[in-house]
Amino acid sequence: MRPVLILASQSPARAALLTRAHLPYDTVVSRVDENAALAEHGPLSPSDTALLLARAKADAVASLEVAEDRVVLGCDSVFELNGESYGKPYTADLAVERITAMSGQKGTLHTGHWLVDRRNGETHGEGEVSSADVYFSHLSREDIDDYVATGEPLQVAGSFTLDGRGSMFIDRVSGDPNAVIGLSISTLRRLLAARGITASQWWRPTPQVTTS
């Protein structure tokens, strides 16, 4: 039987969080043009940006035939430092610049979650943002250059990871650490519960049919 949940993301970190929580899912990548999605709206706060992009991804996948009679989860993360939004840096120079600014500072990682329920012949969408404060150690230029050289920070919001090499440079997190990684399981649980889907339904083992 196919899973009820579709994850509209190609993020290995989000997939790993669902797997560790024993939540069965399929993955369908949304291919949303994030810049185009943002261009349709005026300036947004970092948290509103995260929720908008999460919704765009969920809506895109929910419009597909594969989503019929299922629920689709879209997620997006935006890092906020001194009121500015930091997405993925993509280049080493920008990653170095951003991590240098983050050294010894506190920033906030906002992860937007948007759930679209296409069961029972209806389409219902609902979302929530989970935010957590991240406190960074003081990093030397050598630390920063060596970290950026690994390539890890280039494809992640804020230029750091909590579940990888970047964890060495984080003193502490105030809030849900899973939200920093990219998907708050507790937030997802609330969104699913609002649609009548409880944790026990996910964990209940499939009945085995035996013959004698």
Using only C-alpha atoms, the radius of gyration works out to: 18 Å
Largest sheet, in brief, is: 7 strands, mixed
Count of DSSP strands: 7
**Residue windows where pLDDT falls under 50 for at least 5 positions:** 205-212
Q: What features would you describe in this structure?
A:
There is one protein chain. This protein is an alpha/beta fold and 212 residues long. Helix content is 34%, strand content 24%. The chain has helices at residues 12-20, 34-39, 46-62, 92-102, 141-149, 177-181, 185-194, 199-203, and strands at residues 5-7, 25-27, 71-81, 84-86, 106-117, 124-136, 170-174. Strands 1, 2, 3, 4, 5, 6 and 7 form a 7-stranded mixed sheet that branches. A hairpin with a 6-residue loop joins strand 5 (106-117) and strand 6. Helix 4 packs across helix 5.
Chart the SSEs and their pairings.
Layout: E1 5-7, H1 12-20, E2 25-27, H2 34-39, H3 46-62, E3 71-81, E4 84-86, H4 92-102, E5 106-117, E6 124-136, H5 141-149, E7 170-174, H6 177-181, H7 185-194, H8 199-203
Parallel strand pairs: 1-2, 1-3
Antiparallel strand pairs: 3-4, 3-5, 5-6, 6-7
Helix pairs in contact: 4-5
